[in-house]
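If you are new to this repository, start here. Below is one unmodified record pulled from the training split, so you can see the exact layout before writing a loader.
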Amino acid sequence: MRWFIGACAALALACPVQGAAPGPAASAGSGQAFPTKAVRIVVPFAAGGTFDTVARVTAQRLTEIWGQQVIVENRAGGGTLIAADVVAHSNPDGYTMYLSPNGLAAVPTLNPKVGLEMQRSLAPVVLLAAQPMALGANPAFKPGTIKELVALAKAKPGALSYGTAGIASGGHLAGELFRQAAGIELTHVSYKGGNVAMMDVVANQIPLVMTGLPNLLPLMKAGRVKILAVTDSVRSPVAPDIPTIGETVPGYEFRNWFGLLVAAGTPKPLVARLNADVNRAAASTEVKQRLLDQGFVILGGTPDAFAKVIREDTVKFKDTITRAGLAGVANR
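And here is the target side for that same chain:
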C-alpha cells in the first residue's frame, strides 16, 4: 500500500454480469479446483466505456467456462492506481484480476517513487486485446480534418482542449504523441472515464475527446459527434471511411491495449491456467465477434509475451512523458 499513498492526488486520471449455465471447474495445476467461488475483474475506469465493454464480454464467457460468476468491478480514479492497488494487495490466489491499460507502462515515469514498485506488485497474465483510439469533436467544431485542426491549433496555441479518461490513460498518451508529432499545443482535460469526457463533447463543454473508437461510433452514427481520425496505422475495418492521423502526420501511430494481471506471488501454474482460459474465452466465436464488430483487435498470447510488451512500452512512454514535461508529476 506504501507505493499507492499520496499518488492518487497527483495522478488524476461494479456491476455484476449475468451468469450462464455452469461449466466444469478448471484445475489450477496443483490438484485443487479453480475457481470454487466468484472471480472479479477490476476495471480502472467508470462503467460504460471501452474497458468496461472488454471486461464484461470476457467475464460473461469466463463465467460459462468456469461455472462460477465473474464480476466486473469499476474502480475509477487516481490515474488507474486505485484499481491497481486493489489487485496488487489482494490475495495472490487468482480470484482478483486487473484489466490494465497501457498506462501501466507510463506510471514509472509519471511517479518514479511508486511506478516500478506497482509493476513489481502485479503479475502479467495475458495481453487480451487492443483498439485504436479516435479523436472526436462536437459537430459544431469547425475543423473537420486533422489538417484543419493542426492549422487552428498552430494559430491559437493552447486554446483548444481535449478530454480523456485521465492522466496516463490511453487517450492521454495518444493525445500527447499527436501533440508532439504535429508540433502543436493542446490543453489536456482529465476525466474519470472516456465516456464522461465524451459526454462533455456532446454537450459542447469541450471541443475534443480522445477515446476508444467503439465509444464514439454509436454517437457518430447518431450525429452527436464527428470523428476526425483514428490513431492506428491503418484504417479500421469497422469504419473504413475515417482517416488515420498518420495520413496527415507521418509516422504517427498509437494503439491502446487491454491486459489482465494478478497480484505478484500468484503461483505460476495458476497464472498459466488463467492465461489458457482467458485465451480460450477470447478465441470463442461470441467474444471475438462482439469485440471485432466494435473495432477491437484480439491479441492473446503468453504471460512472458505480455511482460515484454510492458517493458518495451515503459521505455517508449518515458520519452513521450518526459517531452511533455510530466515526468515525476506525482512528486511535485
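Two things worth knowing about this chain: The chain has a mean pLDDT of 87. The CA atoms of residues 2 and 114 lie 8 Å apart.
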